[in-house]
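Supplementary Methods, section 5.1.

A reviewer requested that the exact input to the structure prediction be made available. We therefore reproduce it here, unchanged from the version used in the analyses.
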Amino acid sequence: FLRRFMSGLSTGTCLRRLTAVNCGGRQGCKLAISQLDEDAVREESAMKWALLSDIHANIQALNACEAHAQRQGAERWAVLGDLVGYGGDPLPVLERVMHWHAQGACVLQGNHDAMAITPPQVEGSLGAMTAAWTYQQLPPHCRRFLAQLPMSQRFGQMLLVHASAHQPKEWRYVDNERSAQQCLDAAIAEGDSATHVFVGHV
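The structure derived from this sequence is encoded token-by-token as follows.
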């Protein structure tokens, strides 16, 4: 997901090192390890981050990504939403991510997390159908955890968001140069402008 978004940005990025891994097929989680230049971002953002997104209740993919991040020496963790939906292990995935969150990881809400909290009344898509099933699998404290998650979070000049920073409640995709520019412009328009935006929703 980082490669797709970064393709819409100007050259001269301050990312020193970037490794992207798809750990489980189309519905597997996505992982990126990035080392950010200390001159470009604040000290906290200069750590090596493991960025995961769109796990979609795939515990095998989550295990693989966690092991890869640990081997790469990740110092901070962030999960950019869509913890659940589609996959068959929403509870084990949530329990793992809730444990990371308790240890200080950044966890965001994605559109499939929102659907699992309040499943659509009309099952017009596979995501909507699995949302109703996921809701039934999750105990109340897990649904409360999903409900209180933010859609975005900032660390210094780095903005993490599930969908585009441009109208994030609309769950817009960042899948071309125009949408990438809109996303970055929206982040810059905020008071404390971001210079790096990392997006999931793939």
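Helices lie at 2-6, 59-71, 90-102, 111-117, 126-137, 140-147, 177-189. These observations are discussed further in the main text.
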